[in-house]
Design goal:
Structural class of chain A: mainly alpha
Helix content of chain B: over 70%
Number of strands of chain B: 0
Distance between the termini of chain A: 44 Å
Strand content of chain B: under 5%
Mean pLDDT of chain B: 90
Oligomer: heterodimer
Mean pLDDT of chain A: 73
Largest interface: A-B, 26 and 32 residues
Shape of chain B: globular
Strand content of chain A: under 5%
Shape of chain A: elongated
Number of domains of chain B: 2
Order of helices and strands of chain A: H
Chain lengths: 45, 384
């Protein structure tokens, strides 16, 4: 368990950081990640 | 966003497992005779921090899961258009978020409670009250979350409740600050690098605490809310709080980790640059905050430009000072400094793994003073 709790972290952080290189860019909602609603149903399909 | 949510889930799992490990270790693997009320305070604060982690990480997982559902599965937990409530997000987030800030600061309290007694050469004043204060801070942290949301339109009774519970936290925190000062009182203090950081922690954390008390006052929070005053407040509690205590701990335990001594003068230089840099960076933020500069604004009004410039200068100073820190750690890990005994000889056979270095390492001037005293006392003895 000790090992898991440590080795999960590199995966978690690399997953978060790899969004920087993806289409749409990284998370851009500030520390508290409040969703600014563009309600999904209103998005063009 | 989805990646972010999944990453937060994984970090949450990691935190919970780490916390379980800490609790299990402290409960089951204490040395014989090491009762709970004899444990070092750093262990106590970690134990309490681990409980906080276990309590709030599932809440964070819950809120990001609800968000995941909102994004991909058509639910409307937080979407007012679908009958949800955006304020619910804030409540659930801060129910996690407030204990989380104590998760960041409680181990810092523990570190400082270890370092100050060592360099004041006295036992920690009020050990029992320290334990109870830490526990009550942890418990109170669960009933203050909405003080982050005074302006979302809560009922008056809610504003009052969260205002008073928040102010209540000042009591155990005050007990802790009092105990640290009382530990130093009439101690034979020396100011090696870890102690400098620990004393700066007490002073600057208290400043951050006071601005926290100001923010706790619900009626005036309508002015402070989302301004740079808040930014100044939480940087005063987290940078000289959590960050300084991490630096203090690094200097304090580096000899234990590496078996070598770090460079004391470089450490002190690092401390003073950091101390001055931090204050230049964050103190002006109080003023521009009260003058009305909002947080998270890329193009602030022109009248704030000068103070922002000052803050930037301080930030660069603080940032570059950390290069000294890294250099010092690397040098220490690769061999470290020679240690001198009271009589000025190079100390041999010191493995660095014990904390007695503080009685052995003496500055040149202090060494001269000790020599004079020894010489005088010898003179007196032979005269008599």
């Amino acid at each position: 368990m000790n090992n898991w709790s440590f080795w999960i972290l590199p995966f978690a952080f690399s997953m978060m950081l790899m969004t920087l290189f993806m289409e749409g860019g990284g998370p851009n909602f500030g520390w508290t990640f409040m969703l600014r609603f563009q309600p999904p149903m209103l998005l063009p399909v | 966003m989805t990646f972010f949510i999944f990453a937060v889930h994984m970090m949450g799992i990691s935190s919970i497992m780490g916390a379980i490990n800490i609790i299990a270790t402290i409960f089951n693997l204490r040395a014989p005779g090491m009762t709970f009320m004899k444990m070092p305070l750093f262990v106590w604060t970690w134990l309490i921090t681990a409980f906080l982690l276990i309590a709030v990480m599932p809440v964070l997982a819950g809120v990001v899961t609800m968000m995941l559902m909102d994004i991909h599965f058509g639910t409307s937990f937080f979407n007012a258009a679908g009958g949800g409530d955006p304020v619910l997000f804030q409540h659930v987030f801060w129910f996690f978020g407030h204990p989380e800030v104590y998760i960041m600061i409680l181990p810092a309290f523990g570190i400082v409670s270890e370092i100050i007694p060592t360099f004041a050469r006295k036992k920690l004043f009020g050990y029992t009250s320290m334990v109870y204060a830490t526990s009550s801070i942890a418990i109170l942290s669960f009933i203050v979350w909405a003080h982050h949301m005074f302006t979302v339109g809560m009922p008056l009774i809610g504003e009052l409740f969260f205002m008073f519970t928040t102010m209540l936290i000042a009591v155990p925190t005050g007990v802790k600050v009092f105990n640290w000062i009382a530990t130093m009182f009439r101690g034979s203090m020396t100011f090696e690098t870890p102690m400098l950081f620990a004393v700066a922690f007490v002073v600057l954390f208290t400043i951050g605490g006071f601005s926290g008390l100001m923010l706790a006052i619900a009626p005036v929070d309508f002015q402070y809310h989302d301004t740079y005053f808040v930014v100044a407040h939480f940087h005063y509690v987290l940078v000289p709080g959590a960050v300084f205590s991490i630096m203090a701990a690094t200097y304090y335990w580096l000899p234990k980790w590496t078996g070598n001594m770090y460079n004391e003068s470089m450490g002190k230089l690092h401390f003073w640059l950091s101390f001055i840099g931090v204050n230049i960076t964050f103190f002006p933020m109080h003023f521009i905050g009260l003058a009305g500069m909002p947080r998270r604004i890329p193009d602030y009004a022109l009248q704030f430009a000068d103070f922002n410039m000052v803050a930037s200068v301080g930030a660069f100073m603080f940032g570059f000072a950390q290069l000294l820190f890294i250099y010092n750690i690397v040098c220490c890990a690769r061999g470290g400094e020679k240690q001198l005994t009271v009589s000025g000889k190079v100390l041999t056979g010191w493995s660095g793994r014990c904390l007695h270095r503080r009685r052995i390492t003496v500055s040149a001037s202090r060494r001269r003073l000790i020599k004079v005293i020894l010489w005088l006392s010898k003179e007196q003895l032979t005269a008599a």
